[in-house]
Amino acid sequence: MEAASVHLRTKTNLLLLLAAAGVAVALALASLAFLGAYHGLHDLVWETLPDELGVDPHPWYAIIITTVGGLAVGLLLVVVPGGGGPGPAEGHGLGTEEAPGIDAAGMVLVSLVSLTAGASLGPEAALITIAIAVGALGARRARKAELGRVFGMSGVGSVLSGLFGSPLAPAVAVLEVTHLTGRNLYVFLVPVLVASAVGLLTF
To answer: What is the mean pLDDT of residues 41-55?
Structure first.
């Protein structure tokens, strides 16, 4: 399925949009699962555990947890595959062909430990890595590996629209990486916008 053969009024493009919508639903549910796990761990570490121990979570408990958490993150970055995933300087992997599933799993683990231990960061990096991995996997399962970037960015669109509460927010990221995809703008942008709207509805 080459970019030049995909037009907005063809059956092929309709199937592409339906596939992007399916990826969006999967990523929205995965994002909700990740956020649920994070909030559950956060409540356990910062509310339930101090109450059970009968200690004030500030300041010594907080110092202990953040120190242990930092050491755990440092160790995980060394031992888990992928080294925690693409960093901010690499655009968190936006526009790349794929992120291996095992790297995405490592990124999820690192992010959960880091966020639970008190890092003032958001879940975006891990969720973007998951989106790219799932998009690549979906393209391979459909035997259309060349659509890995389209599906990956559709998943990213679903994630970002849910986090920011707007289906138009992912369009900015898409415009930044279109030149990396080797595809016409509308072939790349329209599926992502559809996925963003579907993802937001799923959230």
So the answer is: 89
| Angle, CA 172 vertex, CA 101 and CA 116 arms, to 5° | 45
d(CA 55, CA 194): 49
Rg (CA), the chain: 19
What would the two tokens of residue 37 be?
């796990």
Q: Cβ atoms within 10 A of the Cβ of 37, count?
A: 15
The per-residue pLDDT for range 76-96, each reduced to its tens digit, is: 888 887 666 665 555 555 555
Residue 95 CB-density burial (10 A; 0-12 exposed, 13-18 middle, 19+ buried): buried
Q: Please, what sign has the CA dihedral across residues 79, 80, 81, 86?
A: negative
Among 10-19, 31-40, 132-141, 175-184, the minimum mean pLDDT is found in: 175-184
